[in-house]
Amino acid sequence: MLPEVVHQPTLHNPFPQISKVAVATFINASSESTLDGRKVAEAYAAELAEVPGYVVIPVSLAETAIRTYGIQLEKEKDARRLAQILEVDAVVVGVVTEYSPYYPPRMSMQVQWFAANPNFHPIPAGYGLPWGTAGEKDIPGPLVFQSELALAKEQLKTQTPPYQKLPLNPPTSDGSGGTHAPGSPPVAPGRPLQGTTPGSKRDVRSVSHEADSTMSANSPESAAPATPATLSPSETSPGVLPSWPDPRGFVPRPPTAYPVSGAPSDEPVLQYMKSYRGNDVEFTTALEDYYYSRDDARLGGWQSYLRRSDDFVRFCCHMHIWEMLSARGGAGETRVVWRWSPIR
């Protein structure tokens, strides 16, 4: 006789500069040949269109433009060219690396968003979250880990010694293939920089404390695509490179009085890879809430989504979009849904 309470998470577009999006046909790199990359792209586009703040053009229009202009989508410039042809802010390019429709169903997907504007840089996880405010304590632990990992990876890039890659020569007719290019100098062993140990606990903890002490509050709605800022020479402490990424880059910068100068980049503005399993407790809990927030008249309950491939693929796209955007300030307040029993 009492209603069932369901807490439905809400999501919105945290980046107004990227509002019109095109989704290209996903590439099936899994061992399951029955998976249709076009259906995966349509499911991703349908779920993205439900997020307030996004306008998604049909997948068929992207396919028509790809055939008309002979675009291969093999390089970053091809995706940017497609975005400019379609007059959209970004093009979504996805790859399904693993898929199995049998119980427990599995799906792994990597998605990259390439902006039409080459001056938009990668948006790291943690950008736009309420760091340094009272809401910082409400940031979920997994998002804090993603933010610290993204910052640590950028900072450790400045401390990693360079090395010469081995030439990838194809084997000759006699079956032998050289590993050293003729005329090239031998690789000298690199000397690690003093005080740097990649992956050490000291580095990660210092990154966390530095981020907590320097980040300030700002609104996620005003976020602009950018990478963590680098320290200026006047702010550089002794023993720190000028290119050391500043944790304050996670906080959106205030507006400037004059247009900023561009710095072209070929990297995707958004990138996220995740694997989903039908027997994972966190996955099935989210699926149950997803099912009860929709008036699905079909029989079988939320468990039937694990048996129907189309529903499973669409929910994986839903989870992928939600996790990627919520890690960058796109999560809103939870909406409480009251559902009454049909026998009432």
Secondary-structure topology with pairs:
Blueprint: E1 4-8, E2 20-23, E3 27-28, H1 37-49, E4 55-56, H2 59-69, H3 76-86, E5 90-100, E6 106-115, H4 141-157, H5 201-214, E7 270-277, H6 281-292, H7 309-326, E8 335-339
Parallel strand pairs: 2-4, 2-5, 3-5
Antiparallel strand pairs: 1-8, 5-6, 6-7
Question: Would you mind describing this structure in some detail?
Answer:
- The chain is α/β, with parallel strands linked by helices.
- It has two domains: 7-121 and 264-339, Rossmann fold, CATH 3.40.50.10610; 124-158 and 198-262, no CATH class.
- 28% of the residues lie in helices and 14% in strands.
- It contains seven helices and eight strands, in the order βββαβααββααβααβ.
- The chain has helices at 37-49, 59-69, 76-86, 141-157, 201-214, 281-292, 309-326, and strands spanning 4-8, 20-23, 27-28, 55-56, 90-100, 106-115, 270-277, 335-339.
- Strands 2, 3, 4, 5, 6 and 7 form a six-stranded mixed β-sheet that branches. It has a two-stranded antiparallel ribbon with strand order 1-8.
- β5 and β6 form a beta hairpin.
- α1 (37-49) packs across α7 and α4 (141-157) packs across α5 (201-214).
- The protein is globular and about 70 Å long.
- The model is unreliable at 179-227 (pLDDT under 50).
List its traits.
alpha/beta, 2 domains, 7 helices, 8 strands, about 350 residues, two-stranded antiparallel ribbon, Rossmann fold, globular
